[in-house]
Design a protein that fits this description.
Strand content: over 45%
Distance between the termini: 55 Å
CATH class: Mainly Beta
Number of helices: 2
Helix content: 10-25%
CATH topology: Immunoglobulin-like
Number of strands: 8
Radius of gyration: 21 Å
Number of domains: 1
Order of helices and strands: HEEEEEEHEE
Structural class: alpha+beta
CATH architecture: Sandwich
Oligomer: single chain
Length: about 140
């Protein structure tokens, strides 16, 4: 094989092997705040756990009073551990009722640009729901 042909083959192979690889230019999603509220007619214990690259960066348990009329009990979190490098996975668990998770990596998959999100979680008769909305970074 000639040197020129060999270079062409090696160049094509390099392009083929790197096609689809993750680049530093991929969009990043950052969680800026988390709100958890109890919509149940009874007290509930809720645990919020955040992990980044297999390390627990936050874990706390809260006791929420029952919903009374239009008043609900909950917690608002805006913490330093929410920003940083690597995928952040947040799990919200309510007693032994249910749990739900959300990760910044999964949120970034369908994005074209960097984004910040606000996470809202409800605990109700159907279990734990996790919702998010884009907010200004």
């Amino acid at each position: 094989m000639s040197k020129r042909r060999r270079r062409e083959v090696l160049g094509a192979l390099a392009v083929a092997l790197t096609a689809g690889c993750v680049s530093d230019d991929e969009p990043r999603v950052e969680i800026r705040e988390i709100d958890v509220v109890n919509l149940r007619e009874e007290s509930v214990e809720v645990t919020v756990v955040a992990e980044r690259v297999d390390e627990t960066v936050y874990e706390d348990t809260f006791e929420f009073s029952p919903k009374q009329g239009g008043s609900t009990d909950g917690v608002h979190l805006e913490e330093d551990w929410m920003s940083g490098e690597g995928d952040l996975e947040v799990t919200i668990a309510a007693d032994s009722i249910d749990e739900a998770s959300l990760s910044t990596e999964s949120l970034a998959q369908d994005r074209e640009d960097d984004e910040c999100v606000s996470v809202f979680s409800t605990v109700d008769e159907n279990g734990v729901g996790v919702y998010y909305a884009e907010i200004e970074c």
